[in-house]
User: Fold this.
Amino acid sequence: AHSPKLSFDFRANFGQWNDNVLFKTSIGPSTVFLESNTMTWVLAHPEDYALVHESSEWDKATLDAWEFRGHAYKVHFVGGSTANVVGQNEQSGYHNYFIGNDTEKWASNVPAFGAVRYADVWEGIGLRVYNSAGQFKYDFIVDAGTNPNAVQLSYEGIDGIEIVDGNLVIQTSV
Assistant:
């Protein structure tokens, strides 16, 4: 089955999210928070995600009784240093976040990028996260003469992990 192509970008944190978040992207029912040495994935159950977007009117009793199914997990860069993380391919336009009453959490003119580059996560090894034809992708960029075995990822909060037909498959509750 082919996954649908999705439009998404990487939005910088100008104080509208927790301090550990550097960039955030939303890809359909998934949200990814890019942090110094971690990517945190927050997944919504596809049925619940579709229900939220199809229902225009909810009454309070329905909302109070409903249990939205989701799952979060982290991908840690084991042994990685705090990387210099910058947005690349700045997109036209900007985003504003005026949510809640705390004006300290408001942010305006927030730029969005087509990619995020982590420089030297491990010595001589960087990481580039990007949107490739609507798919979330990441590449490790290894300098000539650098041992790629330094790249180690640790998954926290998953239900299982396996390789199926050469692909890494992460199992979650959703």
User: Anything to note?
Assistant: Helices lie at 46-54, 60-65. The chain has a mean pLDDT of 85. The longest strand covers residues 112-122. Residues 46-54 form the longest helix (9 residues).
